[in-house]
Amino acid sequence: MTDVRQAITEAHREEWARVVATLTRRFRDLDIAEEAAAEAFAAAVGRWPTDGVPPNPGAWLMLSANRKAIDRLRRENKPKEVEMFHDEPPEALGAIDDERLRLIFTCCHPALAMETRVALTLRMVGGLTVPEIARGFLVQEDAMGQRITRAKAKIKAARIPYQLPSADDLAARVSGVLAVLFLVFNEGYLATSPDTAPIRHELTAEALRLARLIRALMPEDGEVAGLLALMLLTEARRAVRVSATGELVTLGKQDRGAKKFAVPTNRVADQEQKSR
Prior knowledge:
- The chain is mainly alpha-helical.
- It has two domains: 1-91; 95-276, no CATH class.
- 66% of the residues lie in helices and 0% in strands.
- It is built from twelve helices and no strands.
- It has helices at residues 2-27, 30-51, 57-75, 79-87, 99-107, 114-124, 130-137, 141-157, 167-189, 201-217, 222-235, 268-275.
- The longest helix has 26 residues, at 2-27.
């Protein structure tokens, strides 16, 4: 049972953003994507302890989430949307045209307030729960839930596209995205939830991965390079920030002679392959 729980935890860490991003592309609705993804993980919690962990957890979760989304559309009597999904041809993705990168540009659209962008990104890309996000913002859970709901409704009503900005708009949009990425990284590096580990590596790793993608999109941009360098420098000392008993170690007490955490260079493709 412990192994199954660990498998579900790892699947959530590795697959949440991918499932949500894929559903967002297919159904063009953040609310449907989030709900279907959450239901798929809930189904895993109920079935994997008895059926066993599937050989490919990501594929199982994606298939389950697709079915949940289609079931919702049918319940809401939207046959045209279901038909469009079945008739949709596969969308070719380039080396950098990453679905999760498109998702974060959607969540970080300038039409949304900065705090809303961060909260929405933490929920949709980071997979944090509403209570966790609320604690990080020092607000009530209901207020945070309403903020995220309004943000998704605004994206839908304003028909904010799920895509990377054009080359002409990219420079104007990237600063807001970088600010959100740094805050996501910071949430992982200084986790605010008392129910989680002091450092949430899944958040820092995803922030780094997305920052590398943006760096590949804009190799000459100094702001992008500077943020990535800062994040890598910070991540390099992660191994000595937590004691053997799981407690945070202050800078003055950290072992400066300890072997530093090895931060890989820009190996996005390798990371993607391993996560599949």
